Amino acid sequence: MTKTGNEDSIRVAVSAVTLTLRRESEEESPHIVLPLVRRTREPHLGDWALPGGWLDAQEGLEEAASRTLAETTGLAPSYLEQLYAFGAVDRSPTRTISVVYWALLPSDAVDRQIAAYRAAGHAPENVQWFEVADLPPLAFDHAQIIHYALWRLRNKVGYSRVAHGFLPPEFTLAELRDAYEAILQRRLDPANFRRQVEASGTLIPTDRFRTGSHRPARLYRYNTDVELADRGPLAPEETRTP
Amino acid sequence: MTKTGNEDSIRVAVSAVTLTLRRESEEESPHIVLPLVRRTREPHLGDWALPGGWLDAQEGLEEAASRTLAETTGLAPSYLEQLYAFGAVDRSPTRTISVVYWALLPSDAVDRQIAAYRAAGHAPENVQWFEVADLPPLAFDHAQIIHYALWRLRNKVGYSRVAHGFLPPEFTLAELRDAYEAILQRRLDPANFRRQVEASGTLIPTDRFRTGSHRPARLYRYNTDVELADRGPLAPEETRTP
DNA sequence: TCAAAAGTGTTTAAAGTACACCCATGA
DNA sequence: TCATGGGTGTACTTTAAACACTTTTGA
């Protein structure tokens, strides 16, 4: 077993792929968007990168991902899960291990958090939101990372209720279906979709209705007895005693 | 964004949960076993730990996992996948990020590799194999890690052909079923199991038969057109250009 | 009253489960 | 010849998919 290597020159960074839904107009279906940060120094100066930063010695990985995301964008996601640890030798000129997280956020929470962030005096002029289908030139291996995050999301939506991470506490079945359709990139039958989610026991009907145009739709909320996503024997917070 | 932290005092380690099947006798069904290393120094002196070591600055993560596993046990797995990056502050007295991999190996390959390892002059006296159902006192958070690896294996066996990682190139359907039963911890109907794997298109029948007792069983081999496990948009080797 | 989305019912296909039964071999 | 696992057939249950149909609202 190698006890000493050049491990002193290896640095640990964290990044986050933070996804939310944005609806351009009332008519069309929503798209998945994420915030990127324009790099202000080499390497990859001018390219766009995932929000992140260096891991601090006094904090856990998930903690660091939350902190750096909040520092650069002002966002605090409702769902955060580790994606992968990237550590290819040539992924950066300085040897860097990036532990990447992926996060989901309801669009109304994004608006509120960004407003609060600006009100607190921050002007994130190097942060911009992009549709995942139309990404700018990306720094490092971040394009690969984003595609992997989207793959995980598409995968996980099939066997857990992660899609709810995109929605506010109360929502209609059409809004939930819109989220699924944006994730899976295909249309779902409204009738069958209704029956499936009703049978899954993850939803609780409320007495309230969304009264836009046409027939009012019942509002539902999460059944908090059901986990947002199955993470197996790992606790939601990894900072628990071994 | 925090540009400088105490990142110099953070070290990166790699470990591997290496699983194989061991059949105690011809009669009973096989069990999942893994190699552990007895710690010869503090912390956790005398406890058992996953094989691993420090990440070298010149190697990728997967590369380091293979190297340290080979150095401590002489094993070279047929399947290797990243499990998780563990980084809780209190998981070790010195701040350590452990990038853990999980690996599968056919039992006949284990025997061959260990024989070759001993023939090359190595005497791994601190390495011992344990059934996953009967683990000794483990160092750090390694018990949690092993249970997570087993959960991933059980999960993945449902939608990919990872179970083949336990088997030699040619095998009978009963041997494949034994692997599934050991992983899932429940009996499977032989008739339905046969039809399911035949329909999946992952197996190619050979002209050879296993002629033990009773009626000879046809030998099958992998259809190499099908991936061993779905890893999404990530290449099998993470060391590819961004 | 009409367009459009909410919500219900029904039919068909596919996939999974249970289990009876025949086949081929070594002892 | 018989016990045993290899291998096939079939009926039944559950799940998913397709789509016709009714209900309720705003304009």
UniProtKB/TrEMBL annotation, chains A, B:
Residue ranges of domain Nudix hydrolase in the record: 9-154
Entries under PANTHER family matching the protein: ADP-RIBOSE PYROPHOSPHATASE (PTHR43736), SLR1690 PROTEIN (PTHR43736:SF4)
PROSITE patterns: NUDIX
Alphabetical list of InterPro entries matching this protein: NUDIX_hydrolase-like_dom_sf (IPR015797), NUDIX_hydrolase_dom (IPR000086), WH-like_DNA-bd_sf (IPR036388), WH_DNA-bd_sf (IPR036390), WHD_NrtR (IPR054105)
A Pfam family this chain is assigned to: WHD_NrtR
Transmembrane segments: none
Descriptive protein name: ADP-ribose pyrophosphatase
SUPFAM superfamilies membership: Nudix, Winged helix' DNA-binding domain
